[in-house]
Design brief:
Elements lengths: L3 H6 L3 H13 L6 H15 L9 H19 L8 H19 L7 H15 L5 H10 L4 H14 L4 H21 L2 H21 L4 H24 L8 H18 L10 H18 L7 H15 L5 H13 L6 E5 L7 E4 L2 E5 L12 H18 L7 E2 L2 H14 L6 H20 L18 E4 L2 H11 L9 H20 L2 E4 L3 H15 L8 E2 L4 H8 L4 E4 L3 H8 L4 E4 L7 H18 L4 E4 L5 H12 L2 E4 L3 H4 L6
Parallel strand pairs: 1-3, 1-4, 5-6, 5-11, 6-7, 8-9, 8-10, 10-11
Antiparallel strand pairs: 2-3
Helix pairs in contact: 2-4, 3-4, 3-5, 4-5, 5-6, 6-7, 7-8, 8-9, 9-10, 9-11, 10-11, 10-12, 11-12, 11-13, 12-13, 13-14, 14-15, 15-16, 16-18, 17-21, 18-21, 19-20, 19-21, 20-21, 20-25, 24-25
């Protein structure tokens, strides 16, 4: 057997490898020093080669054989010089790079490059991320397998930029491949990992961030373009609705985060997002009762859809009402409100309310009735579908309007009269449509609390309309000074209610309440409060207020009624006839002051048309008499004052 070193001296590396192999098999003597010398000379020939340079394939072969030779001899636990470890690293690295460059040219190139890079992973401690990455790439993994391996590698190499950048690119490729195959779940998973990876890159390596995010934005747009027909077109009909609903949620979350990026979205994206939102709301609505939380999710999406649509179609309101009933335990109370910073349909503690504030400035009166109709239809359908059937409890629209306006008035805010009129039209549609279904509305207005009150007033629509026309005359219409004075006198008791809360108001019918709203709002300005409307009191309640008091009734036929009843404490005065308003008022005031001088009046009850409120105000101003302005006094005094 020849000396292996002779092969080295003759630059015959093949002979050298063969001789060392034979010596290994024959159990030759300790050759550690000679083997190290041969490796050192080979290192000089292939790692830092002299002229002429060996061909790349030849250098790759020599590195490979040196690697296998060293592996073989190291199993014998020989004592090699320390410097051999460095030479081995460099030889193995050169061989790994040379063989990787030959992938696709030589059949064995990929396998040899992978083995050499894996050996590098052992020789370097700890193993650098770039070596791990090279191993992963050479394993001929699928895009998804490579993504998984990279994620595992990053558990040990937290924040390594090389691995993070490779993972982001690999997720992009894997997502696009999944989209082409129709694997929507995997595509969305890889998109999520890609986004998360880019955020991790930004934490420690912000350089190049804009370019990376622009690439990610292109991926998002590709996903939307590919999934649009699946979610809102015929292509999605092959998927179960539950799958499409959950897929929509993932796309929605992706787009919300996308809009937070420093990227200008394409103009068409807003239209597609609105279409996706509409489809997602309907998909989740269809899952109500089948998937836990589906009703809540559908409600949130329809609320969002209603806010985004400039002219919200009634069918959206109908769906919101239907879902609202599903989520309201027991018998729902229904209301009509106008409240800021609230969705179009509001759910609160057993209530379901149609919030019209967003539509009041639309100036398209014909839209109010369909909106109300859509809400009522959704409620009725949901009630019918409940087990055992169920009904609802619609509140009088005026009560909900008063609650809404009171909140605004407390914050010194008001609604323009045009919007109040729109609200009145909605209230009229509310009342009419429930009446057509044979249903009566109920009122949650507070009960009469007369204690400490100066005036108790039943509002009259005709009277209030006349005052409004005087205060806000039509353009170019002259104002009659006498009529102006009368209007101001009518407003006096209402002002007491608005500014000091010392008057109680009620509307004998809902229309009178709606007519009063503009006046009550005008009087509330600057007061941080508005006058409350109460439930129309019963005759018995009013009798309790007047019982045991000195009462003067001013009404046509009051004197005859008083004489007929002959009850102590009740006096009747008929209003003058054939006199003007001011003259009649002056005559009545003089008469009443005379009566007060004889026997002080506790309560003045006025049922005398246009004179009633000015009369109450004047007598209170002069003598401090409390006043009650009501109609149908005959019923009140039919049996006398109790």
């Amino acid at each position: 057997m020849g000396d292996p070193a002779r092969g080295v001296e003759q630059d015959n590396w093949d002979l050298t490898f063969e001789r060392f192999a034979v010596e290994r098999l024959e159990g030759g003597s300790d050759t550690a020093e000679r083997l190290a010398l041969a490796i050192a000379q080979l290192h000089g020939a292939v790692v830092e080669p002299p002229e002429p340079v060996l061909p790349p394939l030849r250098r790759a072969e020599l590195c490979w054989r040196a690697h296998r030779l060293l592996l073989d001899w190291r199993e014998r636990n020989l004592s090699f010089p320390d410097w051999l470890d460095v030479l081995e690293q460099q030889l193995v690295l050169s061989g790994a790079q040379l063989w990787r460059e030959r992938v696709g040219l030589e059949e064995e190139a990929g396998a040899r490059a992978l083995e050499l890079f894996e050996r590098l992973g052992v020789l370097f401690d700890p193993c650098p991320a770039w070596i791990r990455l090279a191993c992963l790439e050479l394993r001929q993994l699928s895009s998804e397998q490579l993504c998984q391996e990279l994620e595992t590698a990053l558990e040990d190499e937290e924040g390594d930029q090389v691995l993070l950048e490779k993972l982001a690119l690999c997720c992009d490729r894997c997502c696009r491949e999944a989209l082409e195959r129709g694997d929507w779940g995997l595509a969305m998973e890889r998109q999520t990992v890609a986004e998360r990876t880019l955020h991790r890159l930004d934490e420690g390596h912000p350089h190049g961030s804009q370019a990376r995010w622009e690439g990610y934005a292109a991926l998002v747009i590709a996903i939307v373009d590919r999934l649009k027909p699946v979610l809102i077109g015929e292509a999605g009909h092959s998927l179960p609705d539950a799958v499409r609903a959950r897929l929509y949620d993932r796309v929605e979350r992706m787009l919300k985060r996308y809009h937070a990026l420093p990227i200008e979205p394409p103009e068409w994206l807003a239209v597609v997002e609105l279409q996706l939102l509409q489809e997602g709301a309907q998909l989740w609505c269809a899952q109500a009762g089948h998937i836990p939380g589906a009703s809540e999710r559908a409600l949130a999406l329809f609320q969002q859809l209603a806010e985004q649509l400039h002219h919200c179609p009634p069918w959206v309101i109908q769906e919101l009402a239907w879902l609202g009933v599903q989520l309201t335990p027991g018998v729902p109370k229904l209301g009509l409100i106008a409240r800021e910073q609230q969705p179009p349909v509001v759910l609160r503690e057993g209530w379901l309310e149609l919030n019209l504030l967003g539509w009041l400035d639309d100036q398209q009166a014909e839209e109010m009735e369909p909106l109300v109709a859509g809400f009522i239809a959704g409620v009725e359908l949901a009630c019918e579908l409940r087990p055992g059937g169920m009904t609802s409890e619609p509140e009088m629209a005026l009560a909900g309007a008063m609650r809404s306006l009171s909140r605004l008035w407390e914050k010194e805010q008001t609604l323009p009269n045009e919007q109040l009129e729109r609200l009145r039209q909605a209230g009229q549609a509310w009342r009419t449509q429930w009446a057509e279904r044979g249903r009566q509305t109920w009122s949650e207005l507070p009960e009469l609390q007369p204690e400490g009150m100066t005036f108790l007033i039943s509002l009259e629509a005709a009277e209030l309309l006349a005052v409004q026309q005087t205060i806000w005359p039509a353009h170019g219409q002259p104002v009659d000074p006498q009529r102006q004075a009368w209007a101001e006198a009518v407003l006096g008791p209402l002002t007491v209610a608005a500014l000091w809360g010392e008057a109680v108001l009620w509307a004998p019918d809902e229309e009178a309440g709606w007519v009063a709203l503009p006046l009550l709002q005008a009087l509330s300005e600057g007061a941080c409060r508005g006058p409350d409307l109460v439930q129309p009191p019963s005759t018995q309640q009013l009798r309790q207020v007047l019982g045991g008091q000195q009462v003067v009734l001013v009404a046509p036929g009051a004197a005859a009624l008083s004489a007929k009843l002959s009850q102590e404490g009740l006096r009747g005065v008929d209003p003058p006839e054939s006199l003007g308003v001011q003259a009649s008022l002056a005559a009545l005031v003089e008469t009443l002051i005379g009566l007060h001088a004889v026997n002080p009046i506790d309560w003045l009850v006025a049922d005398c048309g246009v004179l009633r409120l000015p009369l109450l105000l004047e007598l209170h101003r002069r003598k401090g008499v409390k006043g009650m302005a009501i109609d149908q006094t005959a019923a009140l005094f039919d049996n006398g004052v109790v």
